[in-house]
Design goal:
Blueprint (H helix, E strand, L loop, with lengths): L12 H54 L18 E4 L6 E6 L15 E9 L7 E8 L12 E7 L4 E8 L4 E3 L2 E2 L13 E9 L5 E9 L12
Antiparallel strand pairs: 1-2, 1-8, 2-3, 3-4, 4-5, 6-7, 6-9, 9-10
């Protein structure tokens, strides 16, 4: 008996080993719980950041489109119209280009006005070519020339999108359209849709597709006409 004791009245070697094993198990469980909590926190922060990005992108598009306009006071025969609203069904990510009165002039005495041309389109991610980003392009002013050659601010509106769809409500026919062209020689010429439905599909952390839907209400449906004496 005496050989298995450290000192008279103390714990045996076996008891010490058992106690150490119990303490190690408790420390392991505590670390596992703490580590799991950190993982949940990081995942939650990533999800909240992603949802915040989506809300900002949706809000920006709704604000842009609500101020869309077209004008009759320009040469209607030009190939590149100064004002327009053109939406194309372009596969996974639709394209949309329109003139808006929502430009924000940030510099005093800047040679700019509230008029601008905004376009949305897809572009490969610079760091991962397998991902597609939704791009927002804003020209400094509308022009009746090649719009792609005009100075513009280009920003990534939403990263890693699977699908972006724009649908246009035709208030004269009370139906949704997949495309719209205010410059074409058909029923849409000289008109804007009354609403635009925005549908975005993204992939979450589990690989499942998540859908987000919003609508923009356009304040002006018919082209502006100014008459002079």
């Amino acid at each position: 008996m005496g050989a298995h004791r450290i000192r008279e009245g103390g714990m045996t070697t076996i008891e010490i080993l058992v106690s150490m094993a119990i303490m190690l198990g408790m420390f392991t469980m505590a670390w596992s719980s703490f580590s799991g909590g950190l993982t949940i926190k990081r995942n939650s922060e990533a999800i909240n950041e992603r949802y915040h990005e989506i809300r900002i992108a949706m809000g920006r598009m709704v604000e842009d489109m609500s101020s869309a306009y077209i004008s009759a006071n320009e040469n209607q025969n030009l190939n590149e119209r100064r004002t327009m609203f053109i939406g194309k069904d372009s596969g996974d990510v639709d394209e949309l280009r329109f003139t808006s009165l929502g430009h924000r002039v940030l510099w005093a005495d800047a040679n700019e006005s509230e008029q601008t041309m905004i376009s949305y389109f897809e572009e490969n991610d610079l760091e991962d070519s397998s991902k597609e980003n939704l791009i927002r392009r804003e020209s400094r002013r509308p022009a009746d020339e090649d719009w792609k050659s005009e100075p513009a601010e280009i920003d990534v509106l939403l990263r890693d999108v699977k699908k972006v769809q724009f649908e246009y409500y035709d208030w004269t026919e009370k139906s949704w359209r997949d495309e719209w062209d205010s410059t074409a020689v058909d029923a849409q010429r000289g008109r804007l849709p009354s609403r635009v439905r925005i549908t975005i599909l993204l992939e979450n952390e589990q690989g499942d597709e998540v859908k987000f839907v919003s609508q923009a209400r356009l304040m002006l449906q018919e082209e502006l006409k100014f008459f002079t004496n």
